[in-house]
Design goal:
alpha/beta, nine-stranded parallel sheet, two-stranded antiparallel sheet
């Protein structure tokens, strides 16, 4: 008997057992995701903003695979306003990137207003990060800590919406800090009241990080309570999961995160199932290697040869996860410094091997640990406070953020 993460050998569908009987989308079953007046997204699928991941090279790769809306990695408003070089680079895009979508981060309403005012004229969509669980963010009262103070959340969102004008503004949140300290209901109310075009809910708390299973029932409850579109995020590993989530929760669209790391072709599969078409067989190693080389080339063209190849090391690990003999290959990949070295490392794999089904739901980039969420001292004492919690960012903090984005 196959486990829930293995498909029976006689099945013609490349899917884990839980998804073998999921029907394809019927004609007219799902509608395009409408964000504001001018942005229609079909299929209703969004590449999630991920720090150190959704840079312009990867976004272009996902667009080529069929992703209709690709959000940038989190751009820190304060660093951008202060002229931080790497932040400005990451906030750039190619002339043919449409729609242009950026996620920004700040806990200061004035910073958000100024940043959005400058950014909006050349952008089609803006997302605000209120879900980041990283300790260096929450300990300053940012990210997933902000929704603990609904009045502050409202101030930030209000400034963004006014400054953005006709550009739709969305927000991305988690369920809360812990199961005993949830915030998603207040976040949904604020998003509706302050003019957000949509709210995305990741069905985990900040304490969970990426462990356990995402709570899709919370997404469904938010749909019932909201007057704006709700986007679902969490545990969409296969194209079929997206259909299941939308049917189970009634959400208006799905946001794809870790599942596409080393699998940009997932967006082609998503496009197929939403159009009612079977996505067909999985790619082989021979199919994947040109994608890896193309990705490395785009990274080098954008970041330069040295930084581009250093960035590519983590991607090489994700692309090869689950293949036979890949552990030895990854030992070489984490040291590659050129395209030739990358090609040599990949050449050790069996070119005829298909993408392994056990890798469909394998964790990428994030572990399964939980954490104790760090908040500023006294942060919970006055949850009605609408003042930003942190003073000016230091040069050391900007350097630390640059290092994280640099793959360091």
């Amino acid at each position: 008997m196959a486990s829930k993460d293995e498909a029976p050998k006689e099945s013609g569908r490349f899917a884990t057992e839980r998804n073998l009987e999921v029907p394809l989308a019927a004609p007219g079953e799902f509608e395009p995701l409408q964000l504001g007046k001018n942005l229609s997204v079909w299929p209703p699928v969004i590449l999630a903003p991920m720090a150190g991941v959704t840079n312009p090279p990867f976004r272009s790769l996902c667009r080529d695979a069929g992703a209709p809306l690709c959000v940038s990695e989190m751009i820190t408003a304060r660093a951008w306003l202060r002229g931080n070089k790497l932040t400005h680079l990451l906030a750039s895009s190619s002339n043919d990137e449409r729609p242009r979508s950026f996620q920004i981060y700040s806990s200061d309403p004035d910073e958000v207003r100024e940043f959005v005012k400058r950014l909006a004229p050349g952008v089609d969509h803006i997302d605000l990060n209120f879900g980041c669980p990283v300790p260096k963010v929450t300990r300053t009262g940012g990210g997933s800590a902000i929704p603990l103070k609904p009045r502050l959340l409202a101030r930030i969102l209000r400034e963004a919406v006014v400054a953005a004008g006709e550009v739709p503004v969305t927000i991305k949140v988690r369920k809360g800090i812990t199961e005993d300290l949830t915030t998603w209901r207040d976040s949904g109310r604020v998003a509706s009241e302050e003019g957000a075009a949509a709210i995305c809910l990741h069905g985990r708390t900040a304490a969970q990080l990426y462990s356990g299973e995402a709570d899709w029932s919370a997404i469904g409850e938010l749909v019932e309570a909201s007057s704006i579109p709700v986007l679902g995020n969490g545990d969409i590993w296969e194209c079929w999961d997206a259909l299941r989530m939308m049917r189970e929760t009634g959400c208006s669209g799905v946001v794809i995160g870790r599942a596409c790391l080393g699998r940009p072709w997932l967006f082609r599969e998503l496009a197929d199932v939403f159009e009612g078409k079977d996505p067909g067989p999985p790619p082989t190693v021979a199919d994947i290697i040109p994608i890896v080389i193309d990705h490395a080339t785009r990274l080098m063209e954008f970041f330069g040869p040295d930084l581009g190849m250093r960035q590519m090391r983590k991607w090489g690990v994700w692309y090869t996860k689950g293949f036979h003999g890949s552990s030895a290959v990854r030992e070489s990949i984490v040291r590659v410094a050129s395209l030739d070295e990358l090609k040599t490392a990949l050449g050790k794999l069996n070119l005829e091997e298909s993408f392994p089904i056990q890798a469909l739901r394998a964790n990428r980039a994030k572990g399964s640990r939980k954490q104790k969420v760090i908040l500023p001292e006294g942060y919970l004492e006055n949850l009605n406070d609408d003042r930003p919690p942190k003073g000016p960012i230091s040069q050391a903090e900007m350097a630390a953020w640059d290092k994280a984005l640099d793959g360091g």
